[in-house]
Amino acid sequence: MHCPFCRHSDSRVIDSRTSDDGLSIRRRRQCPECGGRFSTIETASLNVIKRSGVIEPFSREKVMSGVRKACQGRPVTEGDLAVLAQTVEEAVRQTGSSQIDTNEIGLAILGPLRELDEIAYLRFASVYQAFDTLEDFESAIAQLRADHHRPASDPEE
Ligand SMILES: [Zn+2]
């Protein structure tokens, strides 16, 4: 990290702080040459490999627009979508890889969307998991029902 004041090629980290959302690190640095202090914000890059093979940066907005369609007419707010997109980003970053495919994003969306709204979850899952028969819906609904009735302390879990 070059000093912005004197272009010295080294700097010393004097403070590190993780941002509130845990996705970036802000560092206070000091130049050993001129004593100048400056901050840097470091965010690990995260890229998405689309089905077409195109690689583009991860976008929370794209997650939100994908989920928004499934939430039409449901009591889900833009704020809910923003929280969901952040949860998804944190989940995929936790895998530690800098490139993920759209499939993994779809998987990361299913859990939090199910918590948010089960109808939207079924709609999203039907597209994402390519349901093509009534049985696919029936088994997804049966799974939701089974989980509702499961006691909190199921020994099998
Ligand atoms: Zn300097």
Describe this structure in words.
This protein is of the alpha+beta class. The protein is built from five helices and six strands; from the N terminus they run E-E-E-E-E-H-H-E-H-H-H. The chain has a three-stranded antiparallel beta sheet with strand order 1-2-3, with no helix packed on it. The chain has a three-stranded mixed beta sheet with strand order 5-4-6. Strand 1 and strand 2 (25-30) form a beta hairpin. Helix 1 (60-70) packs across helix 2, helix 2 (78-94) packs across helix 3 and helix 3 (102-116) packs antiparallel against helix 4. The longest helix is centred in the middle third of the chain and has 17 residues, at 78-94. It starts with 11 loop residues before the first strand and ends in an 8-residue tail after the last helix. 15% of the residues are buried. The structure holds zinc ion (ZN). Zinc ion is lined by residues 3, 5-6, 8, 31, 33-34, 36.
Structural class label: alpha+beta
Distance between the termini: 48 Å
Main β-sheet description: 3 strands, antiparallel
Q: What amount of the residues lies in strands?
A: 15-25%
What form results from the Cα inertia axes? elongated
The distinct bound ligands, ions and cofactors come out as: zinc ion
The overall pLDDT average reads 89
Counting DSSP H or I runs of 4 or more residues, the number of helices is: 5
Low-confidence region ranges:
none
Number of strands: 6
* Total individual domains: 2
Strand order of the largest sheet: 1-2-3
From the alpha-carbon coordinates, what is the Rg to the nearest angstrom? 22 Å
List SSEs in N-to-C order. EEEEEHHEHHH
* Helix coverage percent: 40-55%
